[in-house]
Protein backbone atom coordinates (compact mmCIF):
# COMPACT_ATOMS: atom_id res chain seq x y z
CA UNK A 1 0.00 0.00 0.00
CA UNK A 2 1.58 3.27 -1.12
CA UNK A 3 0.82 6.82 0.00
CA UNK A 4 1.54 10.02 -1.93
CA UNK A 5 2.72 12.13 0.99
CA UNK A 6 3.49 12.12 4.68
CA UNK A 7 0.09 13.58 5.60
CA UNK A 8 -1.73 10.74 3.85
CA UNK A 9 0.52 8.20 5.57
CA UNK A 10 -0.20 9.80 8.95
CA UNK A 11 -3.97 9.74 8.34
CA UNK A 12 -3.75 6.08 7.37
CA UNK A 13 -1.74 5.19 10.48
CA UNK A 14 -4.24 7.03 12.68
CA UNK A 15 -7.02 4.85 11.26
CA UNK A 16 -5.05 1.64 10.94
CA UNK A 17 -6.50 -1.48 12.51
CA UNK A 18 -4.09 -4.11 13.78
CA UNK A 19 -5.28 -7.71 13.58
CA UNK A 20 -3.67 -10.34 15.81
CA UNK A 21 -3.93 -13.71 14.09
CA UNK A 22 -4.08 -14.70 10.45
CA UNK A 23 -6.63 -17.50 10.67
CA UNK A 24 -10.04 -17.51 9.04
CA UNK A 25 -11.40 -14.76 11.28
CA UNK A 26 -8.34 -12.54 11.01
CA UNK A 27 -8.15 -12.79 7.23
CA UNK A 28 -11.90 -12.24 6.81
CA UNK A 29 -11.47 -9.13 8.95
CA UNK A 30 -8.59 -7.81 6.85
CA UNK A 31 -10.51 -8.41 3.62
CA UNK A 32 -13.61 -6.71 5.03
CA UNK A 33 -11.64 -3.69 6.25
CA UNK A 34 -10.00 -3.34 2.85
CA UNK A 35 -13.42 -3.49 1.18
CA UNK A 36 -14.73 -0.58 3.29
CA UNK A 37 -11.56 1.48 2.95
CA UNK A 38 -9.87 0.90 6.31
CA UNK A 39 -6.13 0.16 6.37
CA UNK A 40 -5.08 -2.86 8.39
CA UNK A 41 -2.16 -5.17 9.02
CA UNK A 42 -2.32 -8.78 10.21
CA UNK A 43 0.34 -10.26 12.49
CA UNK A 44 0.50 -14.06 12.39
CA UNK A 45 2.74 -16.29 14.48
CA UNK A 46 3.49 -19.00 11.91
CA UNK A 47 6.46 -18.45 9.61
CA UNK A 48 4.79 -20.06 6.61
CA UNK A 49 1.16 -20.43 5.64
CA UNK A 50 0.44 -24.10 4.97
CA UNK A 51 -2.91 -25.79 4.25
CA UNK A 52 -3.38 -27.42 7.65
CA UNK A 53 -6.46 -29.10 9.06
CA UNK A 54 -9.25 -31.23 7.69
CA UNK A 55 -12.89 -30.44 6.93
CA UNK A 56 -15.17 -27.65 8.09
CA UNK A 57 -18.64 -26.55 7.02
CA UNK A 58 -19.49 -23.01 5.95
CA UNK A 59 -23.14 -22.30 6.68
CA UNK A 60 -25.26 -20.21 4.26
CA UNK A 61 -24.97 -17.14 6.51
CA UNK A 62 -21.18 -17.28 6.11
CA UNK A 63 -21.28 -18.08 2.38
CA UNK A 64 -23.50 -15.02 1.89
CA UNK A 65 -20.77 -12.89 3.46
CA UNK A 66 -18.06 -14.54 1.38
CA UNK A 67 -19.98 -13.80 -1.82
CA UNK A 68 -20.34 -10.16 -0.72
CA UNK A 69 -16.57 -10.14 -0.21
CA UNK A 70 -16.06 -11.20 -3.82
CA UNK A 71 -15.28 -14.86 -3.04
CA UNK A 72 -16.95 -16.77 -5.87
CA UNK A 73 -18.55 -20.16 -6.37
CA UNK A 74 -15.54 -21.04 -8.53
CA UNK A 75 -13.24 -20.17 -5.61
CA UNK A 76 -15.18 -22.34 -3.18
CA UNK A 77 -15.49 -25.24 -5.62
CA UNK A 78 -11.68 -25.37 -5.72
CA UNK A 79 -11.53 -26.01 -1.96
CA UNK A 80 -14.73 -27.98 -1.33
CA UNK A 81 -18.25 -28.65 -2.58
CA UNK A 82 -21.85 -27.59 -1.85
CA UNK A 83 -23.62 -29.62 0.83
CA UNK A 84 -26.88 -31.31 -0.13
CA UNK A 85 -28.02 -33.08 3.04
CA UNK A 86 -27.63 -33.07 6.82
CA UNK A 87 -28.60 -36.35 8.51
CA UNK A 88 -28.50 -38.12 11.85
CA UNK A 89 -28.50 -41.93 11.99
CA UNK A 90 -29.09 -44.37 14.86
CA UNK A 91 -26.89 -47.23 15.99
CA UNK A 92 -28.68 -49.76 13.77
CA UNK A 93 -28.12 -47.59 10.68
CA UNK A 94 -31.67 -46.21 10.46
CA UNK A 95 -32.32 -42.51 9.91
CA UNK A 96 -33.29 -40.33 12.85
CA UNK A 97 -33.55 -37.08 10.90
CA UNK A 98 -32.51 -35.68 7.56
CA UNK A 99 -32.99 -32.38 5.79
CA UNK A 100 -31.71 -30.76 2.59
CA UNK A 101 -29.11 -28.06 2.99
CA UNK A 102 -28.13 -24.89 1.17
CA UNK A 103 -29.82 -24.16 -2.16
CA UNK A 104 -31.76 -27.44 -2.05
CA UNK A 105 -33.34 -26.35 1.23
CA UNK A 106 -34.46 -23.02 -0.23
CA UNK A 107 -31.62 -20.80 0.97
CA UNK A 108 -30.44 -18.08 -1.40
CA UNK A 109 -26.87 -19.20 -0.73
CA UNK A 110 -25.27 -22.67 -0.66
CA UNK A 111 -23.69 -24.37 2.30
CA UNK A 112 -20.15 -25.55 1.60
CA UNK A 113 -18.06 -28.36 3.02
CA UNK A 114 -14.43 -27.39 2.51
CA UNK A 115 -10.92 -28.46 3.37
CA UNK A 116 -10.06 -26.00 6.11
CA UNK A 117 -6.43 -25.59 5.08
CA UNK A 118 -7.23 -25.02 1.41
CA UNK A 119 -9.96 -22.52 2.32
CA UNK A 120 -7.57 -20.72 4.66
CA UNK A 121 -4.98 -20.56 1.88
CA UNK A 122 -7.63 -19.11 -0.43
CA UNK A 123 -8.36 -16.28 2.02
CA UNK A 124 -4.65 -15.64 2.54
CA UNK A 125 -4.00 -15.36 -1.19
CA UNK A 126 -6.98 -13.02 -1.61
CA UNK A 127 -5.59 -10.79 1.13
CA UNK A 128 -2.15 -10.65 -0.47
CA UNK A 129 -3.58 -10.01 -3.93
CA UNK A 130 -5.98 -7.28 -2.83
CA UNK A 131 -4.18 -5.53 0.01
CA UNK A 132 -0.54 -6.12 -0.85
CA UNK A 133 2.42 -8.34 0.03
CA UNK A 134 2.72 -6.80 3.51
CA UNK A 135 -0.93 -7.41 4.38
CA UNK A 136 0.02 -10.39 6.55
CA UNK A 137 3.29 -10.36 8.45
CA UNK A 138 4.29 -13.92 9.25
CA UNK A 139 6.55 -14.98 12.09
CA UNK A 140 5.05 -12.27 14.31
CA UNK A 141 3.31 -13.47 17.45
CA UNK A 142 1.19 -10.90 19.30
CA UNK A 143 1.84 -11.28 23.01
CA UNK A 144 -0.18 -8.40 24.44
CA UNK A 145 -1.20 -4.78 24.17
CA UNK A 146 -0.92 -1.39 25.83
CA UNK A 147 -3.71 1.17 25.78
CA UNK A 148 -2.47 4.69 25.18
CA UNK A 149 -3.76 7.97 26.64
CA UNK A 150 -4.71 9.28 23.19
CA UNK A 151 -7.11 6.36 22.67
CA UNK A 152 -4.83 4.35 20.41
CA UNK A 153 -3.42 0.93 21.21
CA UNK A 154 0.11 -0.43 20.98
CA UNK A 155 0.52 -4.08 20.08
CA UNK A 156 3.41 -6.10 21.53
CA UNK A 157 4.98 -8.53 19.07
CA UNK A 158 7.53 -11.32 19.42
CA UNK A 159 9.51 -12.81 16.54
CA UNK A 160 10.99 -16.32 16.25
CA UNK A 161 14.52 -15.09 16.97
CA UNK A 162 13.38 -13.69 20.31
CA UNK A 163 13.39 -10.06 19.24
CA UNK A 164 10.38 -7.88 20.00
CA UNK A 165 8.61 -5.01 18.33
CA UNK A 166 5.71 -2.66 18.89
CA UNK A 167 3.06 -1.44 16.46
CA UNK A 168 0.52 1.25 17.19
CA UNK A 169 -2.89 1.63 15.60
CA UNK A 170 -6.35 2.97 16.22
CA UNK A 171 -7.78 -0.44 17.16
CA UNK A 172 -6.57 -3.96 17.86
CA UNK A 173 -8.62 -7.00 16.85
CA UNK A 174 -7.68 -10.16 18.74
CA UNK A 175 -8.34 -13.01 16.30
CA UNK A 176 -5.61 -15.20 17.77
CA UNK A 177 -7.60 -18.32 18.53
CA UNK A 178 -8.57 -20.35 21.56
CA UNK A 179 -5.14 -19.76 23.17
CA UNK A 180 -5.46 -15.99 22.59
CA UNK A 181 -2.91 -13.80 24.36
CA UNK A 182 -5.24 -10.84 23.83
CA UNK A 183 -8.09 -12.57 25.65
CA UNK A 184 -5.77 -13.69 28.45
CA UNK A 185 -4.76 -10.07 29.09
CA UNK A 186 -8.33 -8.82 28.76
CA UNK A 187 -9.67 -11.49 31.13
CA UNK A 188 -6.74 -12.56 33.32
CA UNK A 189 -9.01 -14.49 35.71
CA UNK A 190 -10.73 -16.57 33.02
CA UNK A 191 -11.01 -20.29 33.77
CA UNK A 192 -8.71 -22.67 31.88
CA UNK A 193 -9.79 -24.27 28.63
CA UNK A 194 -12.84 -26.46 29.23
CA UNK A 195 -12.79 -30.15 28.31
CA UNK A 196 -15.89 -32.21 28.98
CA UNK A 197 -14.36 -35.63 28.29
CA UNK A 198 -14.94 -36.04 24.55
CA UNK A 199 -11.95 -37.08 22.43
CA UNK A 200 -11.99 -36.75 18.65
CA UNK A 201 -9.90 -38.52 16.04
CA UNK A 202 -9.93 -36.86 12.62
CA UNK A 203 -8.84 -37.90 9.18
CA UNK A 204 -9.70 -37.95 5.50
CA UNK A 205 -10.16 -40.97 3.25
CA UNK A 206 -10.61 -41.25 -0.50
CA UNK A 207 -13.75 -43.34 -0.90
CA UNK A 208 -16.96 -43.70 -2.87
CA UNK A 209 -19.54 -40.95 -2.21
CA UNK A 210 -22.14 -41.83 0.42
CA UNK A 211 -25.92 -41.16 0.30
CA UNK A 212 -26.47 -38.04 -1.84
CA UNK A 213 -22.76 -37.78 -2.60
CA UNK A 214 -22.64 -34.59 -0.54
CA UNK A 215 -24.20 -35.57 2.78
CA UNK A 216 -23.17 -34.60 6.30
CA UNK A 217 -23.94 -37.62 8.49
CA UNK A 218 -23.75 -37.98 12.25
CA UNK A 219 -24.12 -41.58 13.48
CA UNK A 220 -24.18 -43.01 17.00
CA UNK A 221 -24.87 -41.51 20.42
CA UNK A 222 -23.57 -38.73 22.63
CA UNK A 223 -21.04 -41.13 24.15
CA UNK A 224 -19.77 -42.51 20.87
CA UNK A 225 -20.33 -41.35 17.31
CA UNK A 226 -18.80 -40.79 13.92
CA UNK A 227 -19.40 -37.81 11.68
CA UNK A 228 -18.44 -37.77 8.01
CA UNK A 229 -18.92 -35.67 4.90
CA UNK A 230 -17.08 -35.14 1.58
CA UNK A 231 -14.83 -32.11 1.11
CA UNK A 232 -14.01 -32.51 -2.57
CA UNK A 233 -15.85 -33.07 -5.81
CA UNK A 234 -15.50 -36.68 -7.03
CA UNK A 235 -12.38 -37.43 -9.02
CA UNK A 236 -13.46 -37.62 -12.70
CA UNK A 237 -11.31 -40.71 -13.28
CA UNK A 238 -11.88 -42.79 -10.14
CA UNK A 239 -15.19 -41.42 -8.89
CA UNK A 240 -13.71 -41.22 -5.39
CA UNK A 241 -14.14 -38.21 -3.13
CA UNK A 242 -12.15 -37.02 -0.12
CA UNK A 243 -14.34 -37.86 2.88
CA UNK A 244 -13.64 -36.00 6.10
CA UNK A 245 -14.45 -38.10 9.18
CA UNK A 246 -14.45 -37.45 12.92
CA UNK A 247 -14.63 -40.41 15.31
CA UNK A 248 -15.56 -39.39 18.83
CA UNK A 249 -15.75 -41.09 22.24
CA UNK A 250 -16.70 -39.44 25.54
CA UNK A 251 -14.56 -40.44 28.50
CA UNK A 252 -14.18 -39.29 32.10
CA UNK A 253 -12.85 -35.75 31.82
CA UNK A 254 -12.86 -35.01 35.53
CA UNK A 255 -9.08 -35.03 35.85
CA UNK A 256 -8.47 -32.90 32.77
CA UNK A 257 -6.60 -33.57 29.55
CA UNK A 258 -3.52 -35.69 30.27
CA UNK A 259 -1.65 -35.35 26.97
CA UNK A 260 1.20 -32.83 26.68
CA UNK A 261 -0.43 -31.10 23.69
CA UNK A 262 -3.87 -30.42 22.31
CA UNK A 263 -3.32 -31.96 18.89
CA UNK A 264 -1.22 -34.95 17.88
CA UNK A 265 -0.89 -37.41 15.03
CA UNK A 266 -1.76 -40.99 16.04
CA UNK A 267 -2.08 -44.45 14.58
CA UNK A 268 -5.65 -45.56 13.83
CA UNK A 269 -4.89 -48.66 15.90
CA UNK A 270 -5.10 -46.49 19.02
CA UNK A 271 -8.85 -45.93 18.64
CA UNK A 272 -10.37 -48.07 15.88
CA UNK A 273 -11.43 -50.73 18.39
CA UNK A 274 -14.18 -48.36 19.52
CA UNK A 275 -15.80 -48.74 16.09
CA UNK A 276 -14.79 -52.21 14.89
CA UNK A 277 -18.41 -53.49 14.78
CA UNK A 278 -19.87 -50.41 13.06
CA UNK A 279 -20.62 -52.04 9.72
CA UNK A 280 -23.85 -51.71 7.73
CA UNK A 281 -24.73 -52.50 4.14
CA UNK A 282 -24.22 -48.84 3.17
CA UNK A 283 -21.25 -47.97 5.42
CA UNK A 284 -18.16 -49.73 6.75
CA UNK A 285 -16.73 -47.45 9.43
CA UNK A 286 -13.57 -49.52 10.21
CA UNK A 287 -12.67 -49.62 6.51
CA UNK A 288 -13.24 -45.87 6.16
CA UNK A 289 -10.90 -45.16 9.08
CA UNK A 290 -8.22 -47.69 8.11
CA UNK A 291 -7.87 -46.25 4.60
CA UNK A 292 -6.97 -42.77 5.87
CA UNK A 293 -3.50 -41.46 5.14
CA UNK A 294 -3.17 -40.22 8.73
CA UNK A 295 -5.23 -39.53 11.82
CA UNK A 296 -5.07 -36.77 14.41
CA UNK A 297 -6.28 -36.79 18.00
CA UNK A 298 -7.57 -33.79 19.89
CA UNK A 299 -9.98 -33.21 22.76
CA UNK A 300 -13.29 -31.44 22.16
CA UNK A 301 -12.64 -28.16 23.95
CA UNK A 302 -14.09 -24.70 24.32
CA UNK A 303 -13.93 -21.75 26.69
CA UNK A 304 -16.46 -20.48 29.18
CA UNK A 305 -18.21 -17.32 27.93
CA UNK A 306 -16.93 -13.97 29.17
CA UNK A 307 -19.13 -10.90 29.84
CA UNK A 308 -17.51 -8.74 27.17
CA UNK A 309 -15.23 -9.09 24.15
CA UNK A 310 -14.00 -5.50 24.35
CA UNK A 311 -11.45 -3.53 26.34
CA UNK A 312 -11.48 0.06 25.04
CA UNK A 313 -9.77 -0.03 21.61
CA UNK A 314 -9.26 -3.82 21.78
CA UNK A 315 -11.75 -6.43 20.57
CA UNK A 316 -11.95 -10.22 20.44
CA UNK A 317 -13.16 -12.03 17.31
CA UNK A 318 -13.50 -15.64 16.15
CA UNK A 319 -12.26 -18.38 18.48
CA UNK A 320 -10.54 -15.81 20.69
CA UNK A 321 -14.03 -14.54 21.52
CA UNK A 322 -16.14 -17.68 21.34
CA UNK A 323 -14.26 -20.96 20.95
CA UNK A 324 -17.00 -23.61 20.91
CA UNK A 325 -17.52 -27.31 20.43
CA UNK A 326 -17.63 -28.20 16.71
CA UNK A 327 -21.02 -29.87 17.07
CA UNK A 328 -22.92 -27.36 14.95
CA UNK A 329 -20.36 -26.39 12.30
CA UNK A 330 -20.35 -22.84 13.65
CA UNK A 331 -16.71 -21.96 14.38
CA UNK A 332 -15.42 -20.89 10.97
CA UNK A 333 -18.82 -19.57 9.88
CA UNK A 334 -19.21 -17.39 12.96
CA UNK A 335 -15.69 -15.98 12.57
CA UNK A 336 -16.59 -14.82 9.05
CA UNK A 337 -19.88 -13.32 10.28
CA UNK A 338 -17.98 -11.61 13.12
CA UNK A 339 -15.71 -9.88 10.62
CA UNK A 340 -18.64 -8.64 8.56
CA UNK A 341 -20.60 -7.35 11.55
CA UNK A 342 -17.48 -5.53 12.71
CA UNK A 343 -17.16 -3.99 9.24
CA UNK A 344 -20.80 -2.87 9.32
CA UNK A 345 -20.26 -1.28 12.73
CA UNK A 346 -17.29 0.67 11.35
CA UNK A 347 -19.32 1.83 8.36
CA UNK A 348 -21.80 3.28 10.86
CA UNK A 349 -19.46 4.51 13.58
CA UNK A 350 -16.07 4.89 11.89
CA UNK A 351 -12.78 3.43 13.07
CA UNK A 352 -13.73 4.07 16.67
CA UNK A 353 -14.30 2.39 19.98
CA UNK A 354 -18.01 3.02 19.43
CA UNK A 355 -17.86 0.55 16.53
CA UNK A 356 -16.32 -2.06 18.81
CA UNK A 357 -19.00 -1.44 21.41
CA UNK A 358 -21.75 -1.89 18.81
CA UNK A 359 -20.22 -5.20 17.71
CA UNK A 360 -19.89 -6.38 21.31
CA UNK A 361 -23.47 -5.42 22.13
CA UNK A 362 -24.80 -7.29 19.10
CA UNK A 363 -22.86 -10.54 19.36
CA UNK A 364 -21.38 -11.28 22.77
CA UNK A 365 -24.60 -12.25 24.54
CA UNK A 366 -26.24 -14.39 21.82
CA UNK A 367 -23.05 -16.19 20.79
CA UNK A 368 -22.17 -16.89 24.42
CA UNK A 369 -25.49 -18.74 24.65
CA UNK A 370 -24.57 -20.67 21.50
CA UNK A 371 -21.28 -21.77 23.13
CA UNK A 372 -23.24 -23.38 25.95
CA UNK A 373 -25.81 -24.83 23.55
CA UNK A 374 -23.04 -26.55 21.57
CA UNK A 375 -21.50 -27.78 24.82
CA UNK A 376 -24.83 -29.49 25.40
CA UNK A 377 -24.42 -31.40 22.08
CA UNK A 378 -25.88 -28.74 19.78
CA UNK A 379 -27.85 -30.32 16.90
CA UNK A 380 -26.49 -33.74 17.91
CA UNK A 381 -28.85 -33.51 20.87
CA UNK A 382 -31.28 -35.58 18.83
CA UNK A 383 -28.85 -38.51 19.08
CA UNK A 384 -28.91 -38.13 22.86
CA UNK A 385 -32.70 -38.12 22.91
CA UNK A 386 -32.86 -41.32 20.88
CA UNK A 387 -30.26 -42.94 23.14
CA UNK A 388 -32.24 -41.99 26.26
CA UNK A 389 -35.55 -43.23 24.87
CA UNK A 390 -34.58 -46.46 23.13
CA UNK A 391 -30.84 -47.06 23.53
CA UNK A 392 -30.04 -45.82 20.02
CA UNK A 393 -31.72 -48.64 18.05
CA UNK A 394 -35.23 -48.54 16.61
CA UNK A 395 -37.41 -49.69 13.73
CA UNK A 396 -39.74 -46.67 13.55
CA UNK A 397 -38.20 -43.34 14.57
CA UNK A 398 -41.62 -41.68 14.64
CA UNK A 399 -42.57 -43.87 17.61
CA UNK A 400 -39.45 -42.69 19.46
CA UNK A 401 -39.45 -38.97 18.60
CA UNK A 402 -42.44 -37.61 16.66
CA UNK A 403 -41.62 -35.73 13.43
CA UNK A 404 -42.90 -32.44 14.85
CA UNK A 405 -40.54 -32.71 17.83
CA UNK A 406 -37.54 -33.44 15.62
CA UNK A 407 -38.37 -30.56 13.29
CA UNK A 408 -38.89 -28.14 16.17
CA UNK A 409 -35.58 -29.16 17.74
CA UNK A 410 -33.61 -28.48 14.56
CA UNK A 411 -35.45 -25.23 13.81
CA UNK A 412 -34.50 -23.96 17.25
CA UNK A 413 -30.85 -24.70 16.62
CA UNK A 414 -30.80 -22.99 13.23
CA UNK A 415 -32.30 -19.89 14.79
CA UNK A 416 -29.79 -19.87 17.65
CA UNK A 417 -26.89 -20.33 15.23
CA UNK A 418 -27.99 -17.48 12.96
CA UNK A 419 -28.97 -19.38 9.83
CA UNK A 420 -32.74 -19.76 10.10
CA UNK A 421 -33.72 -19.75 6.42
CA UNK A 422 -36.57 -17.25 6.25
CA UNK A 423 -34.79 -14.77 8.49
CA UNK A 424 -31.53 -15.06 6.55
CA UNK A 425 -33.13 -14.96 3.10
CA UNK A 426 -35.03 -11.77 3.94
CA UNK A 427 -32.18 -10.00 5.73
CA UNK A 428 -30.50 -7.03 4.00
CA UNK A 429 -26.76 -7.29 3.29
CA UNK A 430 -24.63 -6.95 6.39
CA UNK A 431 -22.56 -4.36 4.51
CA UNK A 432 -24.30 -2.63 1.62
CA UNK A 433 -22.53 -2.74 -1.72
CA UNK A 434 -19.99 0.07 -2.12
CA UNK A 435 -20.17 1.13 1.54
CA UNK A 436 -17.07 2.91 2.81
CA UNK A 437 -15.96 4.30 6.16
CA UNK A 438 -16.24 8.03 5.57
CA UNK A 439 -13.58 9.03 8.07
CA UNK A 440 -11.00 6.56 6.72
CA UNK A 441 -8.27 7.65 4.31
CA UNK A 442 -8.74 7.04 0.62
CA UNK A 443 -6.75 3.91 -0.35
Question: Main beta sheet, described?
Answer: 8 strands, mixed
CATH topology of the domain at 6-54 and 116-191 and 306-376: FAD/NAD(P)-binding domain
Q: Low-confidence stretches at least 5 residues in length (pLDDT < 50)?
A: 5-12
Count the E strands.
22
The secondary-structure class comes to: alpha+beta
Strand content: 25-35%
* CATH architectural designation of the domain at 6-54 and 116-191 and 306-376: 3-Layer(bba) Sandwich
Give me the CATH superfamily of the domain at 6-54 and 116-191 and 306-376: FAD/NAD(P)-binding domain
Shape assignment: globular
Number of helices: 13
Across the major sheet, the strand order is: 6-5-14-15-16-13-20-17
Radius of gyration, in Å, reads 22 Å
Query: Mean pLDDT score, rounded?
Result: 90
The termini sit apart by 8 Å
Helicity level: 25-40%
CATH class descriptor of the domain at 6-54 and 116-191 and 306-376: Alpha Beta
